Amino acid sequence: MNLPAKYTRTAMLLHWLIALLIFVNLVLAFITEQIPEDWIRPAINTHKSIGITVLGLVLMRLLWRLTHQPPPLPDSYPRWERVTAQTAHWLFYVLMLAMPLTGWLHDSAWKAAPEVKMYWFGLFEWPRFGFIMALEPVLKERLHGQLGDIHEYLGYTLIGLWVLHVGAALKHQFIDKHQELQRMLP
User: Fold this and answer.
1) Rounded to the nearest 5°, which phi and psi values hold at 26?
2) Which stretch of DSSP H or E encloses residue 102?
3) Over the stretch 83-109, which tens digit does the pLDDT of each residue have?
4) What is the pTM of this model?
5) What is the CATH number that goes with domain 9-184?
């Protein structure tokens, strides 16, 4: 039996850590309106800290990906599946960069940003984008809403791409009987 070409341990670690953090952040985003009032600010602050962490980890993963060739997909996969998989992976990178950046920009346009400092997991103050904070209040408020909408739409797009990604991996593993999951498992 041929063993599948595997990702490096670093790629696996970054993949699963980023996936876990994104999952937690999506849960936090969806439960914020259902939790008690005094838990909302800590949930939002945790969401922001996780988002900044994901941004850093995705940059590391992207650098790793650019310097370490991922294992090729099997030649038995139709060309359209290989092209679709590569396109989906690059779309993931775009979304995983755009999500925290739009969230950070959205937070920087928040009218209370000058008074309510942003901290990375309560450890140290995380800077906001000064050029946005310095905007005229009406423009900043409009930008805050637009960036929030973009951030939310990107989140739904990320969920849709994740469903396709997981569905394709499971299809290859269980229907096509390829050892797809073993490529990303230690």
Assistant:
1) -65, -40
2) helix 79-108
3) 999 999 999 999 999 999 999 999 999
4) 0.94
5) 1.20.950.20
